[in-house]
Amino acid sequence: MISDDIREAITTLHGKGMKIRHICRSLGIARNTVRKVLQGDHQAQTEETPALSDHGSLIMQTYHTCGGNVVRVQEMLKEHGVEIPYSTLTRVVRELNLRQPQKVKAGSYSFAPGEEMQHDTSPHKVCIDAKASTAQCAGLVLAYSRRLFVQYYPCFTRFEARVFLSEAFRFMDGTCERVVIDNTSVIVARGSGPSADINPEMESFGRLFGITFMPHRVGHPDRKARIERPFSYVEHNFLAGRTFTSWADLNAQALRWCTEVANQKPKRSLGMSPEQAYVMEKPYLQPLPPYVPPIFQTLSRVVDIEGLVNVDTNRYSVPERLIGKKVEVQKHWEKVVAIFDNKKVAQHPRLIDKRNAKVVQSGHHGSLSRHKAHQGPCAEESALLGESEILDQYVVELRKRCSGRGIVRLRRLLNLKRDYPPEAFFAAISRALRYGLYDLNRLEKLIIDHVAGDFFRLVPDEEQ
User: Fold this and answer.
1) Is residue 109 in some structural domain?
2) Overall domain count for the chain
3) Which residues contact 200 (CB under 8 A, 6 or more apart)?
4) Backbone angles phi, psi at 374, to 5 degrees
5) Which terminus of the chain has a lower count of CB atoms within 10 Å, N or C?
6) Is there a single domain that holds both residue 316 and residue 392?
7) Residue 105: phi, psi to the nearest 5?
């Protein structure tokens, strides 16, 4: 094979008018080699591409008709009597700029310590408790030191965004003034790019930490390449070969992986690990506010007929006295709190990896079982028993002749005991028990007969 240096030397000497035999002697090569090089250059200079010069418009039209399939273009050209080799045809297509132009080399961004953070999310397939699901991987990175923090969530709304960012800022132990994001509707209210309007809730959250959200231009994801690149590393390194029992276990392992693996691995662009670069960037970070209020989402719910409130398809118990009333429910990341009349009435651990589940706290609801609810003597029976042996026997016999617990008849017997004098009442009970009289109407007549002389002056008919 003739090297480029020899080819260039032959061409240069021949251009100066040197004969072929003199070129062979000077370079120490064969005449056929010199002739081959000169013949090839002549053909390259004089050869024209007939397909490009004569059939360019036909090729362009056929290319668009065939949707960019060059094989089909070659077949249709043959139908028009034009035969062009495939390799030549592909070269013509490139020269006519019919295919998508090659990507232009991207530039690079340099950031000063504490100047910028970048945030983004990416869907990943995870297996939690032997169940496959799609989780949203949220990430935040310091643009200067590349220190990374990632967590996983079932979905990513403004509530999850505030929970994640507050945890990420604590992990970084500080913030940068600018946070570059994409044009997601989670944070952006309207518009796109740097001039977009940020959602008021997220804007207020940013003021708490002294940060400003800045979306990049549409179609320009390289602006936040510091956080775009690590997602593939997270998916193929952290998730590979790891199992998780719950969302809490998944995020605990992700935090440990960030601390022990991702931020300890040296990077060629830094010449050190992100953790070492973070030591230099830490003094430039903005300090966290002295107090960060708890992150929660406020929901208004009406307690259903079962004494439960619904939050994200799961139901949580509140005291049954609140059935039908409106309560305020605060959804925290790890708990659910119910508030009524400005007082906390219930608190439950939040169910994240379940659907249509029910959480009932002991003491919120009474028993629905009649058998359990009616165990033991009723209140009326308890009030009657224990005072007199005769009355105890009468109550037992009366219970035998009642359906259920006999609450109605026992309540009337208790009222008779309270309304009439004890001597008359117990005398009537003793007489009724002796004769097997358990009709309370007739028992009351017996009591009246005993008290008639004490409370009423009875005058015989002949004296009137």
Assistant:
1) no
2) 4
3) 189
4) -105, 20
5) N
6) no
7) -60, 130
Burial of 375 (0-12, 13-18, 19+ CB in 10 A): exposed
Domain that holds residue 35: 4-95
Residue 314 and residue 245 in one domain: no
Q: Going residue by residue through the chain (464 aa), what tens digit of pLDDT does each one get? A: 677 788 888 888 888 888 888 888 888 888 888 888 888 754 444 444 444 556 778 888 888 888 888 898 888 888 888 888 998 888 888 888 887 666 666 667 889 999 999 999 999 999 998 889 999 999 999 999 999 999 999 999 999 999 999 999 999 999 999 999 999 999 999 999 999 999 999 999 999 999 999 999 988 888 888 999 999 999 999 998 898 999 999 999 999 999 999 999 999 989 999 999 999 999 999 999 999 999 999 999 999 999 999 999 999 999 999 999 999 999 999 999 999 999 999 999 999 888 899 999 998 988 776 666 566 788 888 898 888 899 999 999 998 888 877 889 999 999 999 999 998 999 999 999 998 899 999 999 988 988 876 655 555 555 54
Q: Going by C-beta distance under 8 Å and a sequence separation of 6 or more, which residues neighbour residue 211?
A: 117, 175, 176, 177, 178, 179, 286
pTM over 0.90: no
Q: Among 62, 95, 128, where does a domain finish?
A: 95
Residue ending a domain, among 332, 359, 386, is 359
Residue with tokens 């169910």: 351
Both ends of the chain: CA-CA distance in Å? 157
Does 31 fall in a domain?
yes
Asked if residues 169 and 176 have their Cβ atoms less than 8 Å apart, the reply is no
At position 22, the amino acid (one-letter code) is H
> Are both 121 and 228 inside the same structural domain?
yes
In a domain, 365, yes or no: no
Residues 305, 279 within the same domain: no
Among the listed residues 101, 96, 100, the one whose alpha carbon sits nearest the alpha carbon of residue 51: 96
Residue whose token pair is 């925290």: 332
Which residues touch 311 (CB under 8 Å, ≥6 apart)? Answer: 299, 301, 329, 331, 336, 350
My answer on whether 37 and 74 are in the same domain is yes
Residue 141 covered by a domain:
yes
